[in-house]
Design brief:
alpha/beta; seven-stranded parallel beta sheet; 19 strands; globular
Length: about 475
């Protein structure tokens, strides 16, 4: 079958794509930025890629008419304050475009909305379902709560809290109940719904076996990891304080923290398990989901991570807008050093950041990350998804990868930290030399003052960095 996959670069989309191809389907991948879309060479010949923006109706004509089934896996949570309006516009544009195609089924992944009082996020997801349901195709909606898997936002936040805090004094929403589901079960359900007339024009809650409070989820996670943790909940934390607590302790962005806190006050429990009976599925228990996630982490096989989404950073940009480093009106720190062993130097560059660190004066990088956090930035906590591979669009601590080519021996990073301007960091091995270039484009007088203020630190950090990278 010909399947349209929106959100192909997202956490779910990246995991769903290879499974669909393995089942023999031809997949048309919808992405906002082709430069951030990377797939294994083994499936390149079995997919088509189109660049669209669902908020811009005039660009949706690129969607082919000859499709059988479409997945709607996009959302705008945390990209802006008016994300609910953006989600509604996107759903309407998508519906009207799909009405002109041969699609007979749309599969939509939403959130569990059984509570009478919904968060802004869940209410928006419900409104999207209403809009999609007005199409000429059959809509199948699956509603999930917390999704647990290596790289998922929920998993990483729980991991941060448990592994960093032996003792927690936490907000009272930790007593809220939810029903987490493993990412492997989500993928099984999404693929099992294809062209199944029994599920046309119906909605289903999907969830795992266990109903737990968030506190019980944290303690169960600690048990799996062999950690002893103590948690007390207090009623004094306002939603704003709770958001700051989550933001400073975990790797989440502040905007996402606000949305999560808003949602965590609402119980997300499945009304029934009808979909499991239809698909003959026995979902994994919560602890098994945790163990499965860590197997992927230990084997360095994280297929996708929420941190690589642009919602984890300060900008929602297209890479093509920033890949050409400006030359005029910029300050530059250029350092050139001979390289005795280029392959070794390249490997060091490709492993930079995350658990590897920055090779020199790591404490200064950590301090800069802490300062960034204090001013509402991303800090260093995002790390990196994979230790050995880097692709355009990946996060690398408080940087975003713009370009990565081992054959060209070039890596280009763009800063997502809070700055009075824009910054790039480039590594390029040419003719036996490493050229390391830091570029800063200031905004106004404050930007120029900032550059001269940090100039002594740049001299220390960048000199040490290139020295360590070029050591044989």
């Amino acid at each position: 079958m010909r399947i349209l996959l929106t959100g192909a670069t997202g956490y779910i989309g990246k995991r769903l794509l290879p499974v669909l191809v393995d089942k023999g389907h031809t997949v048309i991948c919808c992405v906002r930025d082709k430069s951030k879309f990377h797939v294994e060479s083994s499936i390149k010949q079995k997919i088509e890629v189109i660049e669209i923006d669902l908020t811009q109706k005039d660009k949706l004509s690129r969607i082919p008419q000859s499709i059988d089934v479409a997945y709607y896996l996009v959302h705008s949570m945390s990209t802006s304050k008016n994300y609910s309006e953006l989600e509604k516009v996107s759903a309407i544009n998508f519906r009207e475009t799909l009405n002109t195609t041969n699609a007979k089924q749309v599969i939509y992944l939403s959130g569990i909305v059984n509570s009478q009082t919904l968060s802004k996020h869940l209410n928006s997801r419900k409104n999207v379902e209403i809009e999609l349901g007005r199409g000429t195709y059959a809509l199948t909606t699956v509603r999930a709560g917390i999704i647990i898997g290596s790289g998922s936002a929920s998993f990483e936040i729980i991991r941060d809290l448990v592994e960093k805090l032996p003792v927690m004094v936490a907000p009272r929403w930790l007593k809220t109940k939810c029903q987490p589901i493993g990412i492997s079960d989500v993928i099984k359900i999404l693929t099992g719904l294809i062209d199944k007339e029994q599920v046309f024009n119906k909605s289903y809650d999907i969830a795992g076996r266990d109903i737990l409070t968030y506190k019980e989820m944290l303690l169960a996670f600690a048990e799996v990891r062999g950690l002893k943790r103590y948690i007390w909940t207090i009623p004094l934390m306002t939603p704003k304080l709770s958001s700051y607590w989550l933001y400073f302790v975990t790797s989440t962005s502040y905007k996402l923290a606000v949305s999560l806190v808003d949602s965590m006050k609402v119980e997300v429990i499945a009304k029934d398990d009808e979909i499991n009976k239809i698909l003959k599925l026995e979902p994994l228990p919560y602890k098994d989901c945790i163990k499965q996630a860590f197997k992927k982490i230990e084997q360095n096989e994280i297929v996708s991570s929420w941190k690589d989404s642009t919602i984890s950073g300060r900008l929602n940009f297209k890479i093509s807008d920033y890949i050409k480093v400006p030359q005029f009106g910029c300050y530059k720190d250029i350092r050139i050093k001979p390289v005795a062993n280029p392959p070794r130097c390249l490997e060091k560059i490709w492993q930079i950041g995350g658990s590897t660190g920055w090779y020199y004066a790591d404490w200064l990088w950590r301090l800069r990350g802490l300062i960034d956090k204090l001013f509402g930035g991303v800090g260093l906590r995002r790390g990196r998804t994979n230790l050995n591979s880097i692709k355009a669009g990946d996060t690398l601590d408080f940087w975003r990868v713009l370009y990565a080519s081992k054959s060209e021996m070039r890596l280009l990073l763009f800063a997502e930290m809070k700055l009075p301007g824009d910054a790039w960091l480039e590594f390029h091995i040419q003719e036996g030399q490493l050229i390391q270039t830091a570029t800063f484009r200031p905004k106004g007088l404050l930007g120029r003052m900032y550059w001269y203020f940090v100039l002594p630190l740049h001299g220390l950090i960048f000199k040490g960095l290139i020295r360590e990278l070029t050591k044989p």
